[in-house]
Task: inverse folding
């Protein structure tokens, strides 16, 4: 996900430069290494502010993974088991906060790896300090294609993610609309206030072979979508592609259905939250589909997912959301890397993260490719009457 709702670019860059300077000490000693009987893992997360809804879910998945690993004795390192000690900090959904938290975790706290941030903007702000400190960050949900890459196209050595990048989601949605819905005429409604929405729309358009009869854009925070709905109402569309977050797409679904538009509405992982149907209204949330790395139906084909969902409900009293599953898997990635590296040194952990192959995970067995992106099946959930009724795995 990416949100352009933070501070000005100049202030963000200044903050990153200041914090990058604070991280020089960590760089000089070739990363951080845990000693004793514990290994310290940090969380740099949006726990308040605009993205807190996602961040709080990720915190739950993170804590559940750590609790279970520690209950089993910890992470095995060269025949010795070390328990995880966590340091969780709130970046307040700001780029300056994210840069500051990274410096704090990597230099003062001495963590060997970091989970987060959730959004691409906040994650990008953390990269200079992760790189200076030589401490890897695993984002559960930063989906911008360029997030893990330097400007010259080379991979960022200390940047990883547990989620799909936008291009893959957009392409998958285009194939689904063509092959499953059989839509020949599609309208696109996208959030142009973030690279998340525009990137998904671009990827969809490039992959879709039918007719794009209308393209409409909205801004984050918009409430009235009647003008957009009216613009496509008479186009006789077979489907609508609406990538965005549940807060806005829920209202789009509601207003489109109230206007009499019955065409399927297809979107992205920003919709993967029960609040989508709460905002749209159960009666309106029909023929709704979205790409997601995790589904409440995943347990039917993934025993690890089934156990995770059972354990999550026992721990928190609610069904496990996608973003909790992604954070859970982010911790598993770090655990796997520590075990494979046979070391708690953050530089060696980063190198091992890049070599993960066929790692069992809640969101599907994953392999990290040369761009530090996970390769695993993607799910498409179907919502009827406000509830997820099916999920299809697409490889």
Result:
């Amino acid at each position: 996900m990416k949100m352009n709702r933070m501070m000005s670019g100049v202030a963000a860059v200044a903050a990153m430069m200041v914090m990058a300077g604070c991280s020089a000490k960590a760089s000089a000693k070739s990363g951080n290494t845990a000693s004793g009987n514990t290994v310290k893992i940090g969380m740099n997360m949006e726990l308040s502010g605009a993205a807190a809804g996602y961040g709080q879910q990720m915190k739950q998945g993170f804590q559940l993974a750590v609790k279970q690993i520690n209950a089993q004795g910890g992470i095995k390192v060269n025949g010795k088991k070390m328990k995880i000690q966590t340091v969780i900090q709130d970046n307040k959904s700001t780029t300056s906060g994210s840069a500051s938290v990274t410096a704090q975790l990597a230099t003062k706290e001495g963590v060997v790896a970091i989970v987060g941030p959730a959004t691409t903007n906040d994650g990008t702000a953390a990269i200079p300090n992760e790189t200076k400190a030589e401490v890897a960050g695993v984002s559960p949900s930063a989906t911008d294609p360029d997030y893990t890459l330097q400007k010259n196209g080379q991979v960022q050595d200390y940047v990883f993610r547990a989620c799909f990048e936008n291009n893959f989601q957009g392409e998958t949605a285009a194939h689904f609309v063509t092959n499953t819905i059989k839509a020949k005429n599609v309208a696109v409604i996208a959030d142009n206030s973030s690279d998340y929405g525009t990137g998904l729309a671009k990827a969809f358009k490039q992959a879709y072979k039918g007719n794009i009869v209308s393209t409409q854009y909205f801004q984050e925070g918009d409430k009235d979508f009647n003008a957009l709905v009216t613009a496509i109402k008479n186009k006789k569309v077979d489907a609508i592609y609406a990538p965005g977050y549940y807060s806005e797409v829920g209202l789009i679904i509601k207003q489109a259905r109230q206007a009499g538009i019955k065409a399927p509405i297809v979107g992205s992982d920003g919709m993967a939250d029960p609040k989508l149907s709460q905002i749209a209204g159960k009666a309106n949330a029909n023929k709704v589909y979205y790409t997601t790395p995790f589904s409440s139906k995943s347990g039917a084909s993934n025993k690890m997912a089934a156990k995770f969902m059972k354990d999550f409900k026992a721990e928190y009293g609610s069904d496990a959301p996608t973003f909790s599953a992604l954070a859970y898997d982010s911790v598993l990635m770090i655990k796997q890397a520590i075990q494979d590296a046979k070391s708690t040194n953050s530089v060696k952990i980063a190198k091992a993260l890049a070599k993960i192959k066929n790692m069992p995970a809640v969101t599907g067995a994953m392999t990290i490719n040369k761009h530090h992106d996970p390769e695993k099946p993607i799910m498409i959930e179907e919502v009827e009457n406000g509830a997820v009724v099916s999920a299809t795995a697409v490889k």
